[in-house]
Design goal:
heterodimer; A: about 425 residues; mainly alpha; two-stranded antiparallel ribbon; 18 helices; 4 strands; about 0% strand; B: about 260 residues; alpha/beta; Rossmann fold; four-stranded antiparallel sheet; 10 strands; about 25% strand; globular
Amino acid sequence: MRRLKTLWKKYEQNKLAHGIFLLIYIGVTSLSLYTAQKSVTAFLLLLTSLLLLYFTKFTNLTKWLIAGFVLVFLLPFTASNGDAYQSYMEVSTLVGIYIAMALGLNIVVGMAGLLDLGFVAFFAVGAYTYGIFATAQASNFMPFGTFPLSGESFWLFIIIGGLVAALFGILLGIPVLRVKGDYLAIVTLGFGEIIRIIFNNLDRPINITNGAMGISSVTPPRLFGIDFLYPSQFYYIVLVLLFFTIFTVRRFEHSKIGRSWKAVRENEIAAQAMGVPLVRTKLMAFAIGATFSGMMGVVFAAKQAFVDPTSFTLLESITILVMVVLGGMGSVPGVILGAAVMTILNLQVLTEMTNWLNQLSLSGIISIPYALSPAKMQRFIFGALLILFALYRPKGLLPAKNRIFIEKDLQGANRKAKLVTPQEQSENEKL
Amino acid sequence: MSILEVRNLTKKFGGLTANQDVSMTVEKNSITAVIGPNGAGKTTFFNMITGVYQPTSGIILLENEKINGLQPHDVSKKGISRTFQNIRLFNEMSVLENVLVGMHINLKAGLLGILLNLPAIRKEEKASEMKAYNLLEYVGLADSLNEKACNLSYGAQRRLEIARALAANPKVLLLDEPAAGMNPKETKNLTQLIQSMKHEFNLTVILIEHDMKLVMEISEHIVVLDHGEKIAEGKPENIRNNPKVVEAYLGSGAIQTG
């Protein structure tokens, strides 16, 4: 036992060992995914390699390069060999969308400490922004221009969707920021519902959203004459946006803005006394959080080619919030993990289990009543998970950590400040 | 030369008058103490200066510029920084980050600059981290720079609050009961710290304090409040013997019996 422990210690210190283990792990899982196409387990294990990667001792840049390689080449390639390809890519795309949304909500809830129960509204705003203009719907109220817009406009609409969502974030923020805590939660919940109901009823007097019928046959995105129709294509759009989101959130987190969010969360009065403008800081959190959600909304509308109000219910908002809480409020890696776990659990594990149990009952081995099938128990399972987490990991899967400053780099401020070369500075950046 | 001037400041909460016609002048580069029994309106007075409360009537002038009516964050931009009676740190943030928040108003970084990570922003950030570390060294907290603020001892938390307030580069520093809950040794260190930072940072200090030993030792000017009104002001030795002050603290019986 003791020998095992020392061995483990040695392993923990050794970068090369990490590298070798990771390489073997990725190799084995991708090979098994390539050969056993239908194995969801192999697919999930390959994704787990990213989590293992997170725990290695490589520099950030190396980690990003490996993660990029796995996500851009390895995963799509190894999965592409069979008929389950599109369904894998569909799951990966949705995971990406949810991660970006959860990261957006994490800014509002985790960093700025503003409990928002209507976050899906921004996603809806983004989705409808593209949905309306990428179908003939817009010609009902736009006197000029021809609709639907071409698929090339999608790329512009990613930005527009983000901006419109940010605008709604500010519009929500202005009246709402007078209330705090529980009251804020209720008001945002109301806002989320109002947006959904407005979209549900905005088919009269002018038909803008086509009401409960939803907007169908949304123009697919088009780039260099190629239409984006399949999840395997959307996967790459989501991947790019996701990298952008993570990158942005990381930048903000350790900047003046991120610190002022956390300061407002920790103590409003003290933050104000230190010169942090309360309203502006909170509005910025709402707007930036909403932006990511709005951008992913545009992608979602294009991917589904269909938008209707039922995709944006309160349950969706709660699910995103659960992702944040489960992963660890305020922790970027935690939230990514939380969102991935929740989405995969929801889309793959539970459905797989249901299929498996159904097969068992069909072949007469055991019989499980329909009402007890795992897919039906989704909420029960999530609820149980949350209770377990509240009991045993109240700060989430990967709790938020403060940045660690290296004392040596900060010493001798007066003399050294001018002597720092750009090279040293970039070295310090990584730390 | 006066740096802060308060004229006829009154604050009413409904029927309760917390401050009534308080006027005072604070000399530049001095240490002024505001004393008085509990409930005399000292903290309300501080809250009006820092913009937390708006005065019912009266004027507050900082370097002859009117500052009442401003939001707290604007007041801090004008150069008034403060600490709190009941410690208000950013508990979950690290000690160094607490000080960095204090520098907020001196950082020029904008949204786009942060996103693009411009060299100027990186340089500014690096310089502010070093300055923050310097301040921590100054108050003696350099060893725990990565510690969470809530894990510090009580005395250390008080010192961190001072470091955070100093980070804003204020002209006037308001200390609300800085020695509350400290043992005699800590209080002695604090006394030295306040005196030294007045010179080091070219500060004007106004403090509320109940520890009379500290007050008499460091303040050049004392203002006494009772029931929201100013009952006396002057040099420490004059205040010590002022019958009105003794009465406010000990009751009228104290004077008659000697």
